[in-house]
Amino acid sequence: MKKKLVFFIALLFFVSCVSSTSVTTASTPQEKKVQQKQALKDRLQATVVEQNRLIDSLIAAKDTRLKKDKNGNYIRPNWVSAKGNPLYYSTNKRSARKAIKANAVVAGGALGLNLNGKGIHMGIWDAGHIFTNHNEFNGGADFFGYKVPIEIADSTAADIWLGHPTAVASIVIAKGLWENEKYDVGGISPQLEKIYSYDWDNDVYEIFKQLQTNNNTDFILSNHSYGIPLLDDNNKLILESEEIGGYSLWSSLIDEITYTYPNYLHVVAGGNDGRKVYPSQSVNGLDQLTGSTTSKNALTVGSFSMDDNSENITPTGFSSAGPTNDFRIKPEICAAGQALGAATWNEDNPEATDSYVVTSGTSFAAPATAAGVALLQQLYKQKQNAFMRGATAKALLCHTADDITEWGTQDITGPDVKTGYGAVNLEKAAALIRKDVNETNTILEFELNENDTKTLYFQVIEEGTLTATLSWYDPHTVESSTATLVNDLDLRITQENTIYYPWKLSEDAQKAVAVLSDNSTDNLEQIKISENLGGSYKVEVSNKGKLQNGSQEASLILSGPGIIFVTEKELENISKDEFLVHPIPANDYFTITTLKKNLPFRNVRLLNLTGSEVARVEKLSFTQTPMRFYVNHIATGSYILAIETQNGAFIKNVIIR
């Protein structure tokens, strides 16, 4: 009875306190402010106590989501979310992920995706093997989450651990355990299905063997961060001068493998000889590619530099430049490669599982790109139930790359021999894959028969840039060929009497930047149109001469501010109207475009089916400039769009969903 009485008295005291607090009012504004501050203080104190309790409980439970320092001690999170997730504050860091916009496509990213590389098998060939016991790969002794299986594929050399392949793998799959104010070591595709670790001996044969494995259709990607340097330790050429930029046997074999296995992409580091000079060099800073970097079908990756916030991208001085001897654009792409944090293996402390390094080189730009391709392939398979071809992946990266326009004091707008088509942008690439689901033919894989033409039509609906990128895996040719292209496909865009040509390098002399012309050297072509963009365009892919085996698989990526049509009749059907309103139905906005010359418009009104105005957009004057009419705040249903012209109003039926 006494216990109940004590409880009852305590309850009365609690109710009394609550009642007293709830009815107390401030007599002056100053007193009210004091009360508000006290209430805030109480809430903050209570929050701190509760957050510390939650953090302590996570540490006590050895929660696998917690980060550890180099000594294996748990790092206290700054916060615990409402869902119980430990959260860590982040300062500006050098991050390979952030630099290529991978943050936008992973969990919590801007695109609302959750890409992590799951379902993809990748090979990493290098000087030795990945140190699989590193905490960044297995999470440490108390980690029970997902660990990417790393298979030491050539087991006879399984004990040859090296720091370089370990750092390469770190760029791809590291868990990001190392807490450092400046460097983010988190991998780009940390949940790959599997990694095969090989040393570089017999690499092309081992690639072929891996591709031949019947149950290994998920092996579609490999990284090769090694090659032949320009100069030896005495600064003398290792190769003959004519071999620099030449089509090597290595390149020929890779081209044959990729042509045979079209879903496989071979990613190779472009080299670190960008500052090297040699006596027979025609232009300082150019003609530095060796070994497999000259392969037609491989993706050759250069390096860019960045600030400590992973922004302000510029070409890296050490990154090797092309062109090839037959004036192909190499490298095709670039990624972060300077001053990156990574896991490593320490020769002086070989059992240590927590060694790290700050390192530079195209050796690390290449795996960042390869890991990015893994994310894109994962997304593509989710949407299309199949992997895209390797040539498609190359086209997609080049199509969506951010052009790097300056190299020192030199203007390198457009593709160039130092940075290729620009910096990898996974956010743009992933957005195009998603767009292709609803707007088919954005990413088109097809087979072109000899002397046939593949044609698409594009109707512009607003201002912007029309971009078309064509890519194909070309058959191999013999070593040291001076002209390496076997199947010569052509990309053209036409509008009435105007023909638009792709980029190509001048063959008169070695130059850094490309020009617009007929291209009979590259097996990747791109056309961009931005000036005076308007009306409709015809996009065509054809071929010159003979095609080996009578046909060629090809990939075309087409994007811009408009609509793609497969037939001219479809285009003609919409061209009969005075105005094009797209898309219908819409859930965000309509774009209103005049299809007739000399038909400017000004005000556009949205009416319900009773004729009452729901919304309107007005211009200052009558113009032919396309208009966006936002409807994301308007209820779903059928409406009428009234477009005011100098010749009266034109009516279009529209749907909002």
Structure description:
- 23% of the residues lie in helices and 25% in strands.
- It is α+β, with helices and mostly antiparallel strands and 657 residues long.
- It has four domains: 30-89, no CATH class; 96-438, Rossmann fold (3-Layer(aba) Sandwich); 443-570, Jelly Rolls, CATH 2.60.120.380; 577-656, Sandwich (Immunoglobulin-like), CATH 2.60.40.
- Strands 3, 4, 5, 6, 7, 8, 9 and 10 form an eight-stranded mixed sheet that branches. A five-stranded antiparallel sheet has the order 19-18-23-16-25, covered by helices on one side.
- α9 (390-400) crosses α10.
- The longest helix is centred in the first third of the chain and has 32 residues, at 29-60.
- Residues 1-24 have low confidence and may be disordered.
List its traits:
657 residues; alpha+beta; globular; disordered N terminus
- What is the fourth-level CATH superfamily of the largest domain? Peptidase S8/S53 domain
The number of helical segments is 11
Largest beta-sheet details: 8 strands, mixed
Strand content: 15-25%
Number of domains: 4
The whole-angstrom Rg is: 30 Å
Distance between the termini: 66 Å
Low-confidence stretches: 1-24
Q: Mind telling me which CATH architecture of the largest domain this is?
A: 3-Layer(aba) Sandwich
> What is the arithmetic mean of pLDDT?
88
Task: Kindly identify the CATH topology of the largest domain.
Answer: Rossmann fold
| Secondary structural class | alpha+beta
What helical percentage do the residues reach? 10-25%
Looking at how many chains there are and whether they match, the oligomeric state comes to single chain
Please identify the top-level CATH class of the largest domain.
Alpha Beta
Number of strands: 32
- Shape by Cα distribution: globular
